[in-house]
Amino acid sequence: MAETQTLRQWLLTDTPSSRRHAKLSAIYQGWLSFRSNTMAMIGLWILILLVLVAFAAPLIAPHDPFVQSLGNRLAPLGTEGHVLGTDSLGRDILSRLIYGARITLYIVALVALIAPVAGLLVGTVAGYVGGWTDTVLMRITDIFLAFPRLVLALAFVAALGAGIENAVLAISLTAWPPYARIARAETLTIRSSDYISAIKLQGAGPLRIITKHIWPLCISSLIVRVTLDMAGIILAAAGLGFLGLGAQPPSPEWGAMISEGRRFILDHWWVATMPGLAIFTVSLAFNLLGDGLRDVLDPKAGE
Amino acid sequence: MMGTLLDVENLWVKFPSRNGVFDAVRGVSFTLGRERLGIVGESGSGKSMTGRAILRLIRPPGIVEADQISLDGVDLMKLSEKDMRAVRGQKISMVMQDPKFSLNPVMTIGDQIIEAYRLHNSASKAQAYQKSLEMLEAVSIRDPERVMRAYPHEMSGGMGQRIMIAMMLIPNPEILIADEPTSALDVSVQRQVLDIMDKLVKERGMGLIFISHDLNLVADFCDRVLIMYAGRIVEVCDADKLHDAQHPYTRGLLNSLPRLDMPRERLEVLQRDPEWSVAPSVSARS
Amino acid sequence: MLEIDNLNVWFGKHRDRVDAVKGASFVIGQGESFGLVGESGSGKSTILRAITGLAPLWSGRMIVEGQLLDHQRRKTFFKTVQMVFQDPYASLHPRHSVDQVLGETLHLHGFSDIDARVVKLLDDVGLGQKFRFRYPHQLSGGQRQRVAIARALAPEPHLLLLDEPTSALDVSVQAEILNLLADLRASRGLTYLMVSHDLSVVGHMCDRLAVMKDGEIVEVLTVDALRATKASHPYSQHLLEASL
User: Fold this and answer.
1) Is residue B96 one of the residues assigned to a domain?
2) Considering the domain C2-242 in this protein, what is its CATH number?
3) What is the mean pLDDT of residues B126-149?
4) Does A204 touch chain C (CB under 8 A)?
5) Structural domains of chain A ordered from first start
6) In this complex, do B19 and A12 lie within 8 Å of one another by their Cβ atoms?
7) What's the pLDDT at A2?
8) Distance of alpha carbon A86 from alpha carbon C46, whole angstroms
9) DSSP assignment string, A27-60
10) What's the CA dihedral at B67, B215, B278, B16 to 10 degrees?
11) C241 min Cα distance to partner chain A (Å)
12) CB-CB: which of C91, C109, C138 is closest to A14?
């Protein structure tokens, strides 16, 4: 029977034959329903492209992003050798965008690692333990939520010093409270469900219940939320860069590039517009991806 | 039976899915007169889908197909969505399993009934209020004035279901479709709700389609019973003769029920014959 | 096996306090099958939750296998007492496969030969190996309930609390599950405490039963007495009438 089965049938089976088979089959079915969402696929392709570009930056960038050529400054679009023109110091904008993809990815990855994890920890503990723990943790969350995001990030960067790592840290610190709220709300509904009661009757402790039973259910909605928030995070990082508190020159961070181009925006619009378009495209890609992921991962829509 | 109210011929409900088309209802035909028609079956037998398909309440991607669903000579399949809205409620009403999900939680019961009444009749507020009180009395609600001021969450399950029935009966429909109207209720309340439905159906000469998984309840309450399995009607019989039913599926269902008056060591387990789901649907048209 | 004496259970405190069970007392002998019957809100499920520690606010005495219970439940307790929940669609973790559910339970109870035991448990509840790696959404209601029963049996308990184990199932599936429960009781010498609103189910499964109304036990009688319509309390008679 195994020979006549195609890989597709094997993956779509309702009767998995091993742990690995069951996992692969579940992943494949998720992939199929994700793939049917065209917009999400577009988002995914853009992001894959971004990752490839970031990794292969030295290979595909036509110029060194840091080499200045003052004689060739502010060259317009389509100049020979500089497809997207050059900036005020004569650096090739395309090359800077390509290298900037690395910085953007770096920011995105770090924030995506720190903020949701912190939110998940705080939210699930608060939701599951309840009582005083809940009150204290959620009031702290409220305090963070009460500040405008960029202002709080500004304050952190001002205290920690300007730089890309500190910008990431500041953004993460301002980004976790919404995740904590989501995680807590989910935990409250999961906590009272029969399957949690059932595992309690097997003598499982709170640590096991939170990490093995509540987290897997919270994580999917957090992933969706993080992907949807990514656009905002990229913009916040760009905003900090624009204000001169994020990446420092000459680093080719997209926000900082816009900031530099601002001075010439009337006569040499492309200098600020090109990095703006890059930010726009990546933000949009994350939003599309998040929408698609929600359809696949949201347990409520599953059945 | 006096005349035919509803004539359903060759009704199909299909759901396209990744692994091909799933047929929830497969070629069901029946007629309804001024009677109480029971549809019994297990979950997934297509009984609820049949009820919803008559009102064209199947959501996309589900597809309803039928040679005809005619109500007083009008084929419901050919009506526009707008005309269909007039049929729903006005001519055919539906009572669902759980009243909690059918009532608006932030409006008082009174406001909801009055609104429903004025939607279908041109009446002044005072007239509508009077009429609503009468409706609540008709479903044996004591102290209807107090209930009119109450919110849905203050009602017990049985009360809520009676209110739903009252609301469904306001436009004086010709047909009432009741989908498991008593499954969420306790046994003692169940009886009361059924009695009320019975009385109203008889007094108004309505046709009732009573969808349930409970064989004994249907046998007690209805005039005629359709037994559905895997989207088809496998047997049609008079309700009082249900216990002499012939089809092995019906027999199997009856025998698998534990009975207080007949203690047994083991319950009989239904042996499903794949033949049942491929055999053509029995027609219940007259 | 189980002795409940003047048990009170309540929820909330002060003005919001709701008394769900008031002064309930009954005794279940070793190997007996005892039913709790009542309508929704009568407090029958709450008694089970108090025994298992899921309803923490209670007073009175509960004795399981000679051990007086306090408000803390230990692991050894769960090796003696297990519970099957009402709704098989809600009692299995949606992201855990059957193998994970049973494996984790066995792991928590400190068994070492987990693989062999999972195989055995699945056979015992009549599911077989092909169900081992399925997720709940790939199972029917009856199959899920079998998994839930297997989970409850995993620690090899002596007392099984059954909270309306078949009320969410079709009658033909109900028959299969009730037969399975009867077989398991016979082969493992289990004691059952079964909660149901359906007198005929309790009549089929149990030896004795208690009728509950508004948090109080109004009558304890044998099923034979019930069949012979010898129930003395008017409420029991009323229930009996409604289900015949």
Assistant:
1) no
2) 3.40.50.300
3) 83
4) yes
5) 30-65+75-302 (1.10.3720.10)
6) yes
7) 47
8) 75
9) HHHHHHHHHT-HHHHHHHHHHHHHHHHHHTHHHH
10) 60
11) 33
12) C138
